[in-house]
């Protein structure tokens, strides 16, 4: 029986309506997707521009991009501190992926053109190669200058690793110059022991990084070179060796407790001053004092208890100091011995005070220096971020230093507004 025309027409209209609604839905979804995409892009660009706006702020910002120790941690990256002042973004140490974290948090890493290393332990400079490349690829247009300890005797070294025969015979060459072999002596407990007259410096380190990253720079050159302002030469860094206390038999450049300006902005408003610290056999090692607009931030670097630290940190608004809590370490060592019979590891924990500063001594330094705020980083034993762990670590410090005490966490930012006179 033929379908009534009315029903047939209704079906046709229903199909047409469904098709129209379907097309409307598809169009709406497409437009919604585009709107979401535009919103995400806008937010991303807004964050980048906000990062640029930070550079215009007349105050000082201190960002902790890494607060950990050599032992890897899911919560703390290796040491890296960023300081934004006078329109510049300065980096102090990068032991891992600190600069990548800064980029993820929206800071303009392409504006980084100066890095200051406290010393050449891996947890303070292992991220240097990645930093050089990341800032270049991000759009850095000027050279990257790396300030760090000097090569003690200015020898021209090669970077060849030891051969198996050299390992077996107990010696291997660390540098080759005419009629002069510099040799490491392999043997416990001092393996490897470098010659007393040679300590590698920032020149040596950057030469090695340049060799390691040369294939990367050359391969990327075709892409980055399209920006004429960022030529391939920017994929490498320029070493700026700091003077040490005794340099190649010459008169000391500066001694213990003396601040030496190693960088000054054109306006003279921003200064970075270096001072020697005592980090056991890692000599020379440095701390830094950053001064801008009548305010000061001091970074201790790794150091044993040092009487001159209070002088170098005198009147600072913020003192950022490493710290080891010997009471906590002794408790850990006791458990290792009593429960596990591990006397070797227990001794390792107890020996940490030979290279670092006890938390109570840090508090005394802050008190003697008259600083406004004390921030702890590179804390030993490593602790999880959190109020309880941090309060246990700083126990007893507030009996000595009455100012504000913080344990730095990755991602923490401290802002110093401009001084009243500015």
Automatic annotation (TrEMBL):
<protein>
    <submittedName>
        <fullName>Ribonuclease BN, tRNA processing enzyme</fullName>
    </submittedName>
</protein>
<dbReference type="InterPro" id="IPR036866">
    <property type="entry name" value="RibonucZ/Hydroxyglut_hydro"/>
</dbReference>
<dbReference type="Pfam" id="PF00753">
    <property type="entry name" value="Lactamase_B"/>
</dbReference>
<keyword id="KW-0378">Hydrolase</keyword>
<dbReference type="GO" id="GO:0042781">
    <property type="term" value="F:3'-tRNA processing endoribonuclease activity"/>
</dbReference>
<feature type="domain" description="Metallo-beta-lactamase">
    <location>
        <begin position="78"/>
        <end position="144"/>
    </location>
</feature>
<dbReference type="InterPro" id="IPR001279">
    <property type="entry name" value="Metallo-B-lactamas"/>
</dbReference>
<dbReference type="InterPro" id="IPR044094">
    <property type="entry name" value="AtsA-like_MBL-fold"/>
</dbReference>
């Amino acid at each position: 029986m033929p379908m009534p025309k009315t029903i047939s027409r209704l079906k046709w209209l229903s199909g047409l309506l469904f098709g129209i609604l379907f097309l409307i839905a598809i169009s709406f979804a497409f437009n919604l997707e585009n709107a979401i995409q535009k919103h995400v892009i806008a937010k991303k660009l807004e964050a980048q521009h906000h990062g640029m706006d930070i550079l215009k702020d007349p105050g000082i910002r201190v960002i902790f991009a890494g607060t950990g120790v050599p032992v890897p941690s899911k919560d703390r990256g290796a040491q890296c501190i960023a300081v934004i002042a006078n329109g510049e973004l300065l980096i102090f140490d990068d032991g891992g992926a600190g600069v990548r974290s800064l980029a993820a948090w929206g800071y303009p890493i392409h504006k980084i053109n100066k890095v200051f290393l406290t010393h050449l332990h891996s947890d303070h400079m292992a991220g240097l190669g990645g930093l050089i490349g990341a800032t270049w690829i991000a759009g850095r247009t000027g050279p990257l200058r790396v300030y760090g300890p000097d090569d003690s005797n200015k020898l021209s070294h090669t970077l060849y690793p030891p051969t198996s025969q050299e390992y077996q015979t107990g010696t291997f060459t660390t540098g080759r110059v005419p009629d002069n072999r510099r040799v490491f002596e392999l043997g416990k407990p001092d393996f490897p022991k470098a010659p007393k007259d040679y300590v590698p410096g920032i020149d040596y380190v950057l030469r090695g990084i340049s060799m390691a990253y040369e294939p990367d720079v050359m391969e990327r050159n075709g892409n980055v070179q399209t920006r004429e302002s960022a030529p391939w030469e920017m994929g490498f860094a320029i070493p700026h060796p700091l003077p040490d206390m005794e340099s190649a038999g010459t008169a000391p450049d500066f001694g213990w407790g003396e601040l030496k300006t190693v960088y000054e902005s054109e306006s003279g408003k921003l200064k970075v001053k270096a001072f020697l610290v005592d980090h056991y056999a890692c000599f020379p090692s440095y701390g830094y004092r950053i001064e801008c607009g009548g305010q000061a931030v001091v970074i201790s670097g790794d150091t044993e208890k040092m009487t001159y630290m209070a002088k170098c940190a005198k009147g600072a608004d913020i003192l950022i100091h490493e710290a080891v809590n010997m009471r906590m370490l002794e408790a850990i060592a006791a458990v290792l011995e009593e429960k596990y019979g591990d006397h070797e590891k227990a001794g390792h924990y107890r020996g940490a005070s030979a290279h670092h500063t006890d938390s109570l001594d840090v508090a005394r330094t802050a008190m003697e220096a008259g600083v406004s705020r004390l921030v702890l980083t590179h804390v030993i034993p490593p602790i999880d971020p959190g109020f309880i762990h941090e309060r246990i670590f700083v126990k007893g410090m507030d009996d000595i230093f009455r100012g504000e005490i913080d344990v730095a966490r990755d991602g923490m930012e401290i802002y110093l507004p401009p001084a009243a006179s500015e």
